[in-house]
Design a protein that fits this description.
Elements lengths: L11 E5 L4 H12 L3 E6 L2 H11 L2 E6 L5 H10 L4 E6 L17 H17 L3 E8 L23 H25 L5 E5 L15 H14 L3 H13 L7 E6 L3 E6 L9 H15 L9
Parallel strand pairs: 1-2, 1-4, 2-3, 4-5, 5-6, 6-7
Antiparallel strand pairs: 7-8
């Protein structure tokens, strides 16, 4: 998997959720090419074990995306230039839960935590911000009237899909703002297709959950296969606001650019989501407009 990755000696990568699955595979591929890799993970026992296994210039630092205080502390201690920030971590729960700050947990971890982290680190980032999404975005909708499922009956897949759509809208609006600021940084996105990563999709429906687990065992590609689109979005020749995924029916195989559809292309929704996210996190885009 590393043969098409250019030498990364002297470059620094921060990857959230890098202690397992696709994140770990991505980290290992970049470390093997000489990058200094920082695994930003909540569980430091697992993080340190993963860093030791990956080897090279790999280390683990504490980050809980469900706590804005933790995000701020991580950003405060980040040292030097950061070539790539890979927003990889994700969460799904079959019951309505909340983060330390009171956000619906999937929204808080998958979107708002990464939104805050990116903006807090943006003045140090030199090359790219890569955000891992999912094809679940296609059936999703951003419900600004009930963004955090306070009135609607909670639907785990609906909540998850909303956050994955938010990841793409965030990438789109981030690239627009970077362009307006005259910044050379690229914002890109990727999805892994169907990969066996240890990440559990839970719906609360036993039969459906069992079917998904069985399908993963029979059909899914490895974490290394699932990491290919992230690596393309990180070091490949791709444009800003692009979306990388597996080339074989969007499920598995070599990575390639993929066309977005539906609400993921709505610039008005992207801008409104950004403004709402700033209000919720009290963190703003830090670069001046050129």
């Amino acid at each position: 998997m590393t043969m098409h990755i250019p030498d990364q000696t002297g470059r620094t990568v921060i990857i959230t959720g890098g202690s397992s699955g696709i994140g770990k595979a991505t980290a290992a591929a970049l470390a093997a090419k000489g990058a200094r890799v920082i695994l930003a993970v909540r569980d430091q026992t697992r993080g340190r074990a993963a860093a030791a296994e990956i080897g090279g210039l790999t280390e683990s630092r504490p980050l809980d995306l469900g706590s804005l205080a933790s995000v701020r502390e991580f950003a405060r201690t980040a040292d030097g230039p950061i070539d790539y920030l890979i927003n990889n971590a994700g969460s799904m729960t079959d019951t309505l839960q909340h983060t330390t700050d009171g956000f619906e947990s999937q929204l808080g971890i998958n979107h708002l935590g990464h939104f805050a982290l990116t903006n807090l680190l943006l003045s140090q980032i030199t090359r790219r911000v890569i955000t891992v999404s999912s094809t679940n975005y296609r059936s999703a909708h951003i419900d600004f009237e009930d963004l955090q499922w306070q009135r609607r009956p909670y639907r785990p897949f609906g909540a998850y899909g909303q956050t994955k759509l938010a990841n793409l809208l965030f990438t789109r609006e981030l690239q627009r703002r970077l362009n307006r600021a005259g910044s050379p940084i690229l914002a890109t996105a990727a999805h892994p297709g169907w990969a066996a990563t240890g990440f559990t999709m839970t719906t609360g429906q036993r039969i459906l959950d069992h079917t998904l687990a069985l399908g993963t065992r029979l059909l899914a590609q490895s974490p290394e296969g699932g990491a290919r689109p992230t690596l393309l979005a990180t070091v490949g020749d791709v444009p800003g606001a692009s979306f990388s995924g597996p080339s074989r029916f969007g499920v598995r195989g070599p990575a390639a650019l993929e066309e977005l559809s539906g609400e993921a292309l709505n610039d008005d929704t992207a801008q409104k989501l950004w403004e709402v996210s700033e209000c919720l996190t009290h963190i703003k885009f830090p670069l001046p407009t050129a």
